[in-house]
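[agent] plan:
  1. take the single chain provided in the ticket
  2. run structure prediction with default settings
  3. attach structure tokens to the ticket
  4. add a short note for the reviewer (M.T.)
[agent] executing step 1
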Amino acid sequence: MAVGGPLEPFWDLYGVHKSAHVFKVLEDLRIGNVLPDKDNKQLHEVVNYFVKEPKRHPSLKPHTETPFNAETPRKMLVDSFLTPNELFFVRNHLPVPDVNELQRNHTLELTGIGLKRPVSFKVGDLKKKFKIYKITTTIQCSGNRRTDMDKTKPVKGLPWDIGAVSTAEWTGVKLSDVLEYIGADESKVSHVIFQGHDRDIEGLSYEASIPAATAFDPRREVILAFEMNGKELPADHGYPLRVVAPGIIGARQVKWLERIILSEQESMSFWQQKDYKIFNSSAAVEGGGVTAKAIQEYPVQSAICLPEPGATITDDYLTVKGYALSGGGNGIIRVDVTIDGGLTWFEAKLHSSDQMIHREWAWTIWETSIPLPKEHRGEIEIAVKATDSSHDTQPETDTGIWNTRGLLETKWHRVKVNVDTRKQR
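[agent] step 2 finished; step 3 output follows
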């Protein structure tokens, strides 16, 4: 992108690349060092692109500060069905826009094929013209659990543990209602593109798209949300308007929404064409972008939140608690837990809110209690797998699903704990 110019502005903006594996790649490509200028001349303008960042809760676990990316601590994931706004995981690709500017000037524009002219709405217009809905849905980053896949073989990307996932009740208007109101013709549209107000130094917006069949279908309940858990959207989560597309990976749910484009082609943005795709397991680099399809819905997933890795258990019973979810509206019908490598399974009790069948957009919290061997001392590995309403089940290993970007890690989740039941005697 620098095209022969200074690299530093781009390096400063895309701070997510300041990570160990990127530095290792760069070290292999090093051809020399640039010596400090003896006249101490400034070769490029130093700009802080992140001066408008909001304050964050100290309990979040950051992976990068600029842009800010942080996960919810595993214990807090299952403290309640809905994740508090301040503890909801944060995935930002670019600097957070100036909230004060958005308060003054934000407008949503809809344009594209089949429309005679662009149509614009203020958030207040959306509230007045359309029925308001409340949708409870889980948003999961497609890189959730990447650290697990990295243990199998090194992958590229933010080192998410199990906390790049959270659940909220979103308030907004259905995209399908808005599209019907403006006279959009689904027969002419193949993809619906969303553009955010977050921009890079060239002025290009974060952009992603979903299939028109999803956007136009009222049963898919894609909404333009302006509230989160009954409160105004926080700055990190898209104030004043964002897309919430249930059952789809977080990367398509564009924040700080300012433009919707009806298109015959999917978004041509980097994040649609080059990232958030899964490549052949034998591919060393992301070179197959032409044939690989952009991820939309995510597969069945589960994780153990309690006990935490390395915990010491002295009771006669082991209490295990976590979450499970699936994409596309599929619900969770069973969660199984083992402590002997899969020889014996214990079926967990499921705690899910009332959701309509095949429109189960939120996670299921599960819990089970497993008797421990008497007079046992040593390490035990807990493993969990979930089965969804399509009877898809998580694979045991990464064989066949490993990919260089570490996306959609869904193998059995495992946690090792120390057990000493003799302490109860």
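[agent] step 4 note for reviewer: The two ends are 66 Å apart (CA to CA).
[agent] ticket updated
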